Every structure is written in structure tokens, then in C-alpha cells.
Amino acid sequence: MSTRICILDYGMGNLRSVEKALEHVGATATIANDPETIRAAEGMILPGVGAFPRAMEGIRSLGLDQLIEERRAAGVPILGICLGLQLLFDSSTELGGAEGLGLLPGEVTELDAPGLKIPHIGWSPVRWERQSRLTDGIDSETPFYLVHSFAPQAEPGELLGTAAYGSRFACAAERDNVFGVQFHPEKSSAAGLRLLSNFAGICASVPA
Amino acid sequence: MILYPAIDIRGGKAVRLLQGDYERETSYDADPVDAAKRWAEEGAEFLHVVDLDGAKAGEPQNLESVRRIAAAVDCPIQVGGGLRDPGSVGSVLDAGAERVVIGTAALRDPEFLAGMLEQYSYRVVVSVDARGGRVSLSGWTEATGRDVAETVADLSERGVERFLCTEIDVDGTMEGPAIGELSRIAAATEARVIASGGVGDLADLEALAEIDAPNIEGAIVGRALYERRFSVAEGIVALGG
Fold first, then answer.
1. Which string of b and e fits B48-59 if b means at least 16 CB within 10 Å?
2. What domains lie within chain A, and their CATH numbers?
3. pTM, 2 dp
4. From the candidates B8, B53, B171, B204, which is the catalytic residue?
5. Tens digit of each residue's pLDDT (9 = 90 or more) over B29-63
6. CATH number of the domain enclosing B175
7. How far, in Å, are B114, B118, B161, B189 from residue B121 at the CA level?
8. Domains held by chain B: number
9. By Cβ atoms counted within 10 A, which residue in A195, B61, B98, B203 is the most buried?
10. Is B154 one of the catalytic residues?
11. Contact A187 B2 (CB under 8 A)
């Protein structure tokens, strides 16, 4: 039976493209925000497009913050994508600031790119800062697609990948079974699909 | 939604046609690679490349340009124009295309389409071009009586996962996309639909993003980008990122 992955729906982001990409790599993807479906899943994806404070409001109003913590504590892997990566961190300075989920240490701050256009949009080569199950089989400096104005100040212990825009910024992070990528694997062709396939493999490897 | 900047190649140059008419051409970049680099630099997620000479000849005529574009940008490209046999499709993929866009042959030659879908699955995009709701073929020179929504529904059943739908009468005009027709087509299929034709300003992109159909995946933009009505990045934001 294929791996069941729940795409957490809190009203922000293009969930359908993530769903299609997961199905493409052989996972069973469900878009949901109810406890029953989330507890039945072997993995969670936290997507997101938009502003950090509003996203956290949506997550809290649905009780997803507690469910995510409950499942994480049970060992269920989670992958944050784009804004979803940022939400995994302690806090963000966006729009006056807000607390995040606190699953990864550090603050999310505006890109340091003097003289360059914000948001940063386009394909950027991503450098792996260490080995990971998530990036297995994907060469360092493979281009991924990014649309963002902020990036996390990840600690060296959690830093998985960086890219350059003005200066180098963190665009992938991991701690135990908590993973996040600033880029869009669902938009990033074969390498992105490989990453999602690796994530599904990680989810399948966790004993129920 | 995805904004697909269009690079139509004719005689080695990047050009735009008005309503598909080869007699009404505007020439922009002398080298299409320059256009590709510009759109990629502005943030394009995907590029849409059309070999206009190929569409007319019935086989690719600008493979070298395709090869140079694919080598010049990190952005993936889809390529159409004159792909009517497996050899042509293979040559375009070998040149570096991520996806192939098949038009006329997909409608005329069901066996060819089935073979390509079997071999390349989601890398195949089928282009359905229409005038007043009826399908047109062969570089838009030949009208059929077939309803475009019915055609799309039929092709979906045969396994097509992504369509490119062009409304010929608005193409190249920058007077706004055929919103009603696109809604009707999108409702006829579960496959993804890329809208093409008529985008002139950011409000047109916002209108496309507002169509209540989750399977409208993106929009092709040509002349409006070349005329600098807006940048690729501004267009992506208007489409909702």
C-alpha cells in the first residue's frame, strides 16, 4: 500500500500542485485539516503561500499547531514547503512579527539582497550543506524554483541547503523528522519529484 | 498559477504573430536565446517555445535554437510546432525540452498520440486551438466543425494530462483572454489547462486567476511581455504566485 501523506489545509497555498506531484511519485495524498485524517497519515506536508502572521492565525484557529506537535512527537515526518518551511521556525519578523511553530530554532527575516528585486523569483542552484535522506540522489547545485521575500536564520545544526541572492540564505533545513524547503519541489521538475519521493520514503520507513 | 512566457521562433528570430497570421508578424529579438535569458532572469518558472517554421513545415525547423535555449537557462521549456511523428518528438526532447506540445497530429492521428502518451506520459501537452468554440488545425489554417470542449473531454479520456488552449481570435491582440470559453473548456476535463491568447495587462492575469476552475494551471503570455506592459515577476504575482 502506498504511503499516506496528508497535505495540511489551512486556507493558504496551491495544494493541488503538491497533491499531483505526490501522486506522481506513488504516494497517496490527501488534503485535509481534520484530526482523524491527519492521525491516519504517515507523513505531513505543510504548504503555504502568503504572509506568515496570517498563516499562523489560520493554523491556530484550526488547532493544527497542536496536531502537528502531537504527530511530530509520535515520530511522523513533516515537510514544510515555501512559507511552510518558515512556519516551522520560532518566529518571523514579517508584518510586525509573529510566533511560529517552534519545531526548528531560529528567526525568519527578510532577504538581505541590497539593490535586488524582492520577492526573489526564479530558478536558483541549491547547495547541499550536508548529506540527508531528503536530498539523496539529487546533486548539489541543482536548480530549484523559488518565490519568496523572507528566509530563516537556520542554526548550523539544522542547515541543510543554501542558495544565493545578494547573499547566501538558508533554503532547506532539517532536524530529526522535521524537514523544510524554501523552494517548490512540486514545481521543480525531476529533482523536485525526487525530493518528494525521498520524503515519501522517509515517511514509509517510520514504524507505525 | 504558472506564467509561461512565449518564445515563438521564425527564421531564427523571436517573433509574435497576430491571430496566428504569418503575414502579420512583429519581430522582437534577433536571437530567441536573448528572450529566453531575459524571461528566466525575471523569474519565469517555465518557458513556452514554438517553432513557427516547424508548424508550417510539419516538422521541426529550429532545433538548434531549442538546443541553445535549453542550454542557456535553468528554467524548463516546453516546445511545440510541427511535431507530427515520433522522430520529431524525440528530437525536441533530445534538444533539451522538458515537455512537448503536440497539436494537429494529436487530433488527426490517434495512434501517434497514444504512442507518445505511452512513452512520455505527463511530458506530453496537447494543444487545442479554437475559433468561436470550434477546433482549428494545421497552424490554424484549417477549420473543423468540432466543439473544443467536447474534443478536450474526448482527449482526456485517452490519457492527455495537460492541454494548451488557444483562442485564435484574441491571440496577439492583447485585448483580453476568452474567459468564458476557458471556463467552459476547463469544466469539460480534469486534466490541467494552460490558457493562451489575449493577455494584455495584469488585470487579464488576475481575471484568469479568478476563474473558478482549479485545473487552469497557467497562462501563456507573449506580446505583452515583449512590449514591456509588465514584467514576468509582476505577472507571476498577478496570477497568485
1. bbbbbbbbeebb
2. 4-205 (3.40.50.880)
3. 0.88
4. B8
5. 999 999 999 999 999 999 999 999 999 999 999 99
6. 3.20.20.70
7. 9, 6, 8, 17
8. 1
9. A195
10. no
11. yes
